Amino acid sequence: MAATGGSGGSKARGTFGKMGFILAAAGSAVGLGNLWKFPYMAHRNGGGAFVLVYLVAVLLLGLPIMMAEITVGRSTASNPVRAFRRLGGKWWSLVGWLGIGTGFIILSYYSVVAGWTIEYVGKCLAWSAQGFTKADAAKVGSDFMAFLARGDKQVLYHGIFMALTAGVIIFGVKKGIEAVTKVLMPALFLILLLLVAVAATTSSFLPALERLFLPGKIGARGILEAVGQAFFSLSLGMGAMLTYGSYMSRKESVPRSAAMVCGLDTLVALMASVIMFTIIMGVPPDQRGKFGASSVILFTTLPEMLYNLPLGRILAPSFYLLVGFAALTSTISLLEVLVSWFIDDLGWKRSFATVTVGLATFAMGVPSALSFGSNEFLTSRFAPLAPKASGFFDTFDYLAANFLLPIGGLLTAIFVGWYLSSAFTKKEVEEGHGPFRLHLLWKTLLRFVCPGAIAWILYSVVFQGVKFN
Ligand code: PFF
């Protein structure tokens, strides 16, 4: 089928209202990647140097690919499989399939980690009510490990999180996704602002800013991590932005929306880092090493640090609520990618598609939920990618973040850069925007810079054993 450039069927599929796309897409982008991964990666890779490389990666790689995904989605008003098929034919639709498969994998394990926030909001509420004692502080780490190994709790929270996600998706694009992100995103931003404001009153605030914004030393590995992180954090490479783009009005500007989303995502990552770095700089230097060495810091060292801040009793539960909100708006986008295919291509009703796909993803996530100690085989013996990853969760996270997302991004860049004609992409990107003077620059980035940089990442992962998570 030829490219339509129209909005075939968009009425039935739903369309975002004003600001709806930006909030939903920012909701997808802002997630565990910003609040959990970015700060510890920045901390262990020379602070300011990492931030600088990350900003360059967002501008040269993230922004052009995000525009590419949105353009493909909006011009076809279709899910990723159908969108690539309409514009490129049968073979290109494989890129859409890759996206759907990647979404299924990421959602299954992302929801497990997201579920931890439920436990920690509850824990913090109890600590805030009873007071966070020295004895509590002493066993935060062991408590967390014990919690990880509780298979029943892991599965339960994963199930609750999937149910929450499905509960939003079932109401559709406008009444579900848009309505919820319109409330959650400003709430998230307010909580972040509150935390930054409190951080600013402490004496470790300035040292934290210095560490975060004055360049330190960064190696090749750090540069690669920054590039991979830009991808994951902006939700690129699996059709999430493409799917949201398919609900975007043709009256809105693609370049401006993409720039807003990239800007908001980066702002949140930096704000989260300011908060984390302030907390880290507040502890004696010999204890700081723990941070950045471990990805579980968010649930082990952090509670104690939060309770040391002024207003800790309010801040601690608010913080985990914030992380939960951020994760929820991301899982919503992941599930929507899958559901949109069942609705568009199989003609299923939204409610039926949501429940079915939600249950399937829940089932797929159960082995991940059990791979944190409760089941020995899933925790350590399941290791097809050893020594790079071991355990069910780790293996799938490794596969998705290091291979599937970069490959999806690479193919999207080639598709929009080389396969789609400039006349078509120019017309599409100018609709709702007006004359787009940077079209040639955009195409050049998609043709050369993005494929080159992503090929370098893939080469490094395969041949040099770099791991992004
Ligand atoms: N961008 C999300 C984060 O930073 O946590 C993760 C993510 C969501 C990746 C949605 C991919 C996606 F499609």
Which features would summarize this protein structure in a list?
single chain; 469 residues; mainly alpha; Amino acid/polyamine transporter I; 23 helices; binds 4-fluoro-L-phenylalanine
Summarize this structure briefly:
By secondary structure, the protein is mainly α. The chain contains 23 helices and no strands. 78% of the residues lie in helices and 0% in strands.
Can you describe what's shown?
Helix 2 crosses helix 10 and helix 4 (48-76) packs parallel to helix 12. This protein is 78% helix and 0% strand. It has helices spanning 10-13, 20-29, 32-44, 48-76, 80-88, 93-130, 134-138, 140-148, 151-169, 172-200, 205-213, 220-233, 240-245, 254-281, 285-288, 290-293, 297-308, 312-346, 350-369, 376-381, 392-419, 422-430, 439-464. With 469 residues, it is an all-alpha fold. It has one domain: Up-down Bundle (Amino acid/polyamine transporter I), CATH 1.20.1740. It contains 23 helices and no strands. Residues 1-10 have low confidence and may be disordered. The longest helix has 38 residues, at 93-130. 55% of the residues are buried. The site of 4-fluoro-L-phenylalanine has 15 residues, from helix 2, helix 3, helix 12 and helix 18.
Arithmetic mean of pLDDT: 91
What are the low-pLDDT stretches, counting only 5+ consecutive residues below 50? 1-10
CATH class: Mainly Alpha
CATH topology: Amino acid/polyamine transporter I
Radius of gyration: 21 Å
Proportion of β residues?
under 5%
Bound molecules: 4-fluoro-L-phenylalanine
**Helix coverage percent of residues?**
over 70%
Q: Please state the overall shape, judged from the principal axes of the Cα atoms.
A: globular
Query: Which CATH architecture is right?
Result: Up-down Bundle
Instruction: Provide the domain count.
Output: 1
Instruction: List the helices and strands in order.
Output: HHHHHHHHHHHHHHHHHHHHHHH
Sheet with the most strands? none
How many DSSP helices?
23
Q: How many strand units?
A: 0
**C-alpha termini separation:** 40 Å
- Based on helices, strands and strand pairing, what is the structural class? mainly alpha
